[in-house]
Structures
1.
Amino acid sequence: MEMKIRREQLCYERLAADVCRQIVIEGEAVLPGSMRDAVTVLSVQAQAHLTGVQAGTDRVAIRGRACFSVLYTQGDLTRIRVIETTCDFSHGIEVRGVTPGMRLEAAVCVRETNGVAGSGRLSLSAQLDISVLAFEREERNAAADVQAEAGLCRKNQTLQMSACRTLGEEKTLVREEFDLPERLAVQDVLTAMGTAVVRDITGGNGHIGVSGTIEVRVWHRPEKNGDALVMTLHEAPFDVKIPAQTAEDMPLTARAQVIDIMADSASIDRQRTMRVEAEVCVRLFGREEAEIDLLEDLYSTDGPLLEPQTEEIDVYTSRECGSVRESVRLQATLPTDAPPIETVLWAAANPLHVEHESAGRRLNTQGVMGLTLVYLPVDSDIPYAVRTREPFSMTFPIEAGDGARVQMHVVECGIGPATSDRVELRCVLSADVRAQEIRHLRIVTDIAQKQEEKHAHGFVLVWPAPGESRWDTARRLRVPQENLRAVGPNALMAFRK
């Protein structure tokens, strides 16, 4: 049989690897003052970001930087001090199936931190969770249509194909000033942290604009010694232009991250002004999407038997579901050997382990929260620190679906009522959700012709097997679907020439 096959080229991404590894990095800071001064480490907080990711053969090289912020006392143990330092790190992760040239998506988050003082130095460490997705771009030729002289039945399918690519990356420096109300009764800034949120993507003609806000959390020293540290929340806008060539209807997404932030304040005429400076890195991604009509199946009604040669392909797709916030109240109980609480000075929270389950338009999460409390014990002016872990469960109003990837971080941690051995904390958590899907598709790559089988002519009465479609029955009998006639509740009849 003479046939003419029209083909289409498919471009898509296949998920080659999805791994999560834990690594430990170490840093060091020199303490000011005398080496003989007594030093107590109260709290170690850290933020981390990646500066480079490179694919090798069954291996991924990771480079990044961690910024440590340490609350401690030295010499005068009643006065809380802060020291900040950065630590560059590099690490190789074994990832089976990765080859050079693959597109990588990597993320890092800080799980736990620790600090020890000795000989005038701070030895710092952080346990990091690093997740890596590796994508291989593939191309396949698939049969889209077949033309023949006669006696051919075809069934088509419409496939949604997509592939993501990184369009560009830019950094911007944001400077803002904020007036602090006198009623806050604060002195100098101790430490600051920030989170960048993308709000809008605009533009075209080779330049894409990404705008958003930086949410800044700043801790201040109180005017009166022995009072709780004061935390203030601020927002600073950012706007960056990224050179990128995009199609007119290409879906765009962007991710922003604060890679460095610093804040200080000064008092002039009893008016305290705070200055914030933050460096933000913005990455722009574009998704190439196409809707393609392809051949799904065919058979001949006369002449040689036609057998489609098929291939199974796995197509990876993902989309940003959004970011939602919810609050939760946690009870932190002191260990039995800890002194009783007089005044809570500071508290911090960090989700150490989180599991999630999608339930319709809700995302149910549960896990373990790491809590740090700094407080004044009864009849003492020297701050005392306690680290504990408490279970938590939360529900976020967002539709994620199965296979979603969820990243959580604490936006705010407030101090509630306290007794001598227990503290209530109110934590606001943000859940950033990305839906992921791997679709298993079947495409026709070629058509083989086999020797014609002899079959009886005339009327044929059949009872289709359970689950057999009308197309399958017509294909088995080698008759057009429109020739099938229902004769009874389950039987079909066709005339075969």
2.
Amino acid sequence: MSEAFVVGAAVARRFQQGDVTLDALRPASFTVRAGDRIAIVGPSGSGKSTLLQLIADLDTPTSGTLRWPALGVSGALRPRHIGIVFQSASLLPSLSAVENVEVPLRLLGGPTAARAAARAALASVGLTDIADKLPDELSGGQAQRVGLARAIALRPRLVLADEPTGQLDQPTAQQAMDALLYSLEGSDAALVVATHDPAVARRLNTVWRMDHGVLTLPTPPAVGAPA
């Protein structure tokens, strides 16, 4: 069996808003393994982003436990081991495309290595020709692919994407997904995408469903059942 990158045991996240308690994630147990391609689907407000933030170590569970057995320990996972793609590319407007991709690389390496790795990441998502352009010179699809390049530049073992195509039209969304999947080919990196787009979910091998904070995993086949 492949390595376990993330293991959640009865993980829950509750928010208190005045007198109102919101169960954004009810107790859920799950595992993300090397090579997984997982879509988390559900309507807006169902808890997809909350789950992704917990997996990314951007938030702390109210109860339950989260471990990253093959990746490391909480507080030391990003950006080396976990790369994150947000719905908005959130590029720094004063930096060129390649400089934006360099940002996490410079946190961990020297400037020469960072520039070379940033250009390689842009090439992997088909953006070699726009490396020196500023964000306001890019189309929405190009900007989102720059965000993808930034997330994968350090070759993380786990890539998390929160509605990465939510602001794109369907053809551009499919181009962005093409770039993301292509960039991970040949590696054991795992990919988890939170999306409300069925076309995106169909591109991935496994679907987790969320509704009102309840996570439902696919039922594994019975032992001895035909494949």
3.
Amino acid sequence: MDWNTLATQLFGADHGITADGDFLHGTATFDGAPLTVVGTTNHAPIGVQLALAQARVVLDTVASHPGRPILLLIDTQGQQLRRRDELLGINRAMAHLGLCIDLARRRGHRVIGLVYDQALSGGFITSGLIADACYALPQAEIRVMRIPAMARVTKLAPELLESLSQSNPVFAPGVANYVAMGGVRGLWQGDLPGALREALAHTPTGDTRALDGAERGGRRLAAAVAQRVLDAA
């Protein structure tokens, strides 16, 4: 689904969201109240400029509109693989974006992520995975690393990883696997405004991903190990 169709379904034809190249931003009205929308489109690679532009919208919302909800629309191929961005410190720019989202949450803004097309690698980690919760459309594509790249990093045979991906969501891409692992809280289908309304009203402000993953069978040990570490601290 393209971003304009999604925005129209959520907020109506006069949704107030604009696209400046790959950068989405604007203020929508939802259930009679303003809501900040920020994100990306066109499978955007997140470089320094795009990361800082998104961070600016989040900080402006925190400074000028205390408590206003923020919706992150996510469609990215990951970080920009370009020498210029590396030299300018893309790692710091993306970390800054993540910190701004975390600041908004700490200041009482409800932050909801929605993967409506594609979410890969660092572009997803520093946006949707830092929100109060991340949701996705059923047709979305989510992965942090392709199996060939995973094989190079782990030094395991691609055939072994392919086999593991059939039974273990940790090794497999796909939105259903991220739901099973708890990284995606749920899928939005049918009544999209109703799904957003439910998310704004009932998404927990604490991080429940490890517990969700344990309950869904996608990450069986993360919550238990984290609790053991806390108990030993």
4.
Amino acid sequence: MNRLNIKKIILKSGKDQSLRRLHPWVFSGAIKKMEGDPGDGDLVQVFDNKGEFLALGHYQIGSIAVRVFSFADILPDEEFWTEKIKLAYQYRLRIGLAESPSTNVFRLVHGEGDGMPGLIADFYNGTLVLQFHSVGMYRMKDTLYNSFSSVLGNRLKAVYDKSKGTLPGKLRSQTENSWIAGEETEINVLENNRHFLVNVEKGQKTGFFIDQRENRRLLGKLAKGRKVLNMFGYSGGFSVYALGGEAEMVHTVDSSASAIDLARENVAVNFPGSAKHEAITADAFEYLDNAGKNYDLIILDPPAFAKRRNVLPQALQGYKRLNAKALQSIQKGGILFTFSCSQVVSKENFRKSVFVAAANTGRSVRILYQMSQPPDHPVSIYHPEGEYLKGLVLYVE
């Protein structure tokens, strides 16, 4: 890459402070002028109003105009990206995850948390699923594949690009999900010694909700002897852990019939012939309306109610309504696991919605645990927006 061809962004006076604090975003309103007419995905250098170099990143039309991947003035060649991915892999090794005998599914790259904004890479027992959230990262797909191959070696059996639903603008409509290397549609993964069937082509997100691993483990410790309702149950992850924790009964509810079928399969793989589990296709709100007081452990893990800030008020009302229904129906002495995976919903907003729901029911509620995403979904201390998953475990009298 010719350094002379790198385009330039000059910031307005005083708009350089966030970059000096190592925050990896430049908002469009902070830009004074652009040199070289950068387009979607172009590599750009960012300078302050006096001409001092600040950062290097990818330009994108929109509110977040630059996603920074380096605060050093370097040339981002394949060696640079290989080193980035190597550091991300070594981090997962050091936290005991990348080569765990009990778990072979984990997130290898988590966007800004690993210094690679716009890139998600999930490892499923040899299959790597990539999701690109920026044009700049997508345009580097071949380079990144080479880097992943170099770092993972013979551990890497197949690579799937699942970016059609995550890319911005026109590129989304011009892109199809596809295999970059190999093909492993049905994958059997191991998580905390529990087996799960994952279909990376048809499954939600990259195929499995990896980010709930530690929260599922906690649920297993609290499930003994309880009657469990797993709402928005998808492939039955929480249900499998509840059964492993000796729950008395477990009901998995999801509006998707295909998800319910997968939940049944995952329960059967781990607990063949178990009579404790029932999978039900139903709308969550309607099911809770008619659930009665049959459960003393309920999990609420809905899809994101708000993906954009302009729908935040409606999302908070949705969380309030959903949690109120669960709190009204749960048995005395019950436990409620409740989550939000919406990035635009802050911990404070989510907790306030649950607080209002609890207050409206008039029940005594204690917070047992406050939860977030696991360490393979790292949050950079300079980018608090990366903490998207938040959850509460409540004890209800």
